[in-house]
Amino acid sequence: MVIGMEDKKQQQKHMWLRFSRLRVDNRDSSEPKITPEQAVKLCDRNFGIGADGVIFALPGVNGTDYTMRIFNSDGSEPEMCGNGVRCFARFIAELENLHGKRQSFTVHTGAGLIVPEIQEDGLVKVDMGQPVLKAANVPTKLASNKNDAVVKSELVVDGVTWNVTCVSMGNPHCVTFGTKRGEDLQVDALNLAQIGPKFEHHDAFPARTNTEFVQVYSPSHLKMRAWERGSGATLACGTGACATVVAAVLEGRATRLIFVCLTIVIVKQKCTVDLPGGPLEIEWREEDNQVYMTGPAEVVLGAFVFEVDQQERFITKKSIVPAACGIEDMIPLLVLLKVYGQLISAVVVLGHESCTRILLRINI
C-alpha cells in the first residue's frame, strides 16, 4: 500500500497538487483486500493514516491491463476518481519499475475505460473519456434545457437559488459559478462544510453528487473548490476539474479553440484549474469530444504487510510493496498486522529495514 499525495520534485518546474489516496496492490485478487469499514478507519485523519479514500489495483477485465476500485473515506464506492487514477498510474509505475519511461496502459473502472499516460517529465496525462450531459444519465432530476443537458439551470439550496450545470465524468457533478443574483463567486469565502452536504444530498440528485464552486479569472483560467460525494471537502478533484471546464464551455465562460484571424490559425485551448492543493491542466478536445487531464503524482508512503500464522502463532512477513523505488528521501512505512486473516492494527514507522521510530498506531 502506498499513498500518492505530493509531487515534491515537480513543485519548482510544473505544479504541486496535494491530494491523498491510499493505494493497495491487489493484482492477485479480483476482490479488495480491505473492507469498506477498514477503509473508513484507515482514512481517518485523526485516528488513522489519513486519506480521501483507498484505491485498489486489481487484475484487468475485458482485455484491459488493470482494474481500479475505490472506497471513499466514508466507505462508499464511487465509479471513478480523476486524481485517483493519476495516483493509480504512479503506483503501477512503481510496481512495474517504469521509472523514466513514457508509458500508458488501460484501466477498467466503474465509469468505463480510462487510459493514463506517464510522461517523461513525470506528470501523468489521463484520457478521461467523453463527458455525459444527458440529464437522465448524469443523473439529475432537473429538467434539461439545452439539447437534453442541464446548463445554467436554477437549483434552490437552503433558500438560495443557484445557477448550476450538470455533468458526468463517469460520476455525477453539479457545477456552479454563482447564484441567480449574478454576483461573481468568491470561492475562498464559501463555508464549504455547511453548503456542500446540502448540494450532495439534494433531491435533484438521486445518486448524490459532487459539487464544484467555480470562480472565473479568464476563459483559460478557473479557480475551483470541490465538495466530493462520500469524501467531503478535498484539496483536489480531477473529475471535478474536468466537469468544471466542460461546464464553463457550455455556459460560454471558456472556449475550446482560439482563432487567430490574421494568420487563420486555430489553436487548441487548454484550461488551468486552480484547486486548494494546486493546479490541473484540462483540455476538452473538439475533434473527438474527449477530455484530457494532466497533473502530478508521487509516492510518499510504502507498506509492509505481516500476518500471524494460525497454527504456529508467530508473525510472518506476508508481502512487501517496493515503496522506495527511485525515492531519494527517507519515507514512512505502513505496517499492517493481520491475525487469523483479519486486519487488526496498523503502525506507521520512519525509515526502512532499520526503522525505529513509531509515528502512530491505530486499531482497525
Commentary on this structure:
The protein is mainly beta. The chain folds into 2 domains: 21-128 and 302-348, Roll (Diaminopimelate Epimerase, Chain A, domain 1), CATH 3.10.310.10; 135-295, Roll (Diaminopimelate Epimerase, Chain A, domain 1). 12% of the residues lie in helices and 40% in strands. The chain has 4 helices and 24 strands. The protein has a 22-stranded mixed beta sheet that branches. A two-stranded antiparallel ribbon has the order 15-16. It starts with a strand and ends with a strand.
Observed structural traits:
364 residues, mainly beta, Diaminopimelate Epimerase, Chain A, domain 1, two-stranded antiparallel ribbon, 40% strand, globular, amino-acid biosynthesis, diaminopimelate epimerase activity, diaminopimelate epimerase, DAP_epimerase_DapF
Query: What is the number of independent domains?
Result: 2
Helix amount: 10-25%
Structural class: mainly beta
Task: Tell me what portion of residues adopts beta-strand conformation.
Answer: 35-45%
Shape: globular
Radius of gyration: 21 Å
Order of helices and strands: EEHEEHEEEEEEEHEEEHEEEEEEEEEE
Q: Which CATH top level class of the largest domain fits?
A: Alpha Beta
Mean pLDDT: 79
Brief write-up:
The chain is mainly β.
How does the SSE layout of this entry go?
Layout lengths: L1 E3 L16 E5 L10 H8 L9 E7 L6 E7 L9 H14 L7 E2 L2 E3 L2 E7 L5 E4 L25 E5 L2 E9 L3 E8 L12 H9 L9 E9 L2 E8 L3 E3 L3 H13 L6 E4 L4 E4 L2 E5 L2 E7 L6 E5 L3 E10 L6 E6 L11 E8 L2 E9 L6 E7 L1
Parallel strand pairs: 2-3, 4-6, 11-12, 13-17, 20-22
Antiparallel strand pairs: 1-2, 1-20, 3-4, 5-7, 6-7, 7-8, 8-19, 9-10, 10-11, 12-13, 13-14, 15-16, 17-18, 18-19, 20-21, 22-23, 23-24
Catalytic activity: (2S,6S)-2,6-diaminopimelate = meso-2,6-diaminopimelate
Protein name: diaminopimelate epimerase
Pfam families: DAP_epimerase (PF01678)
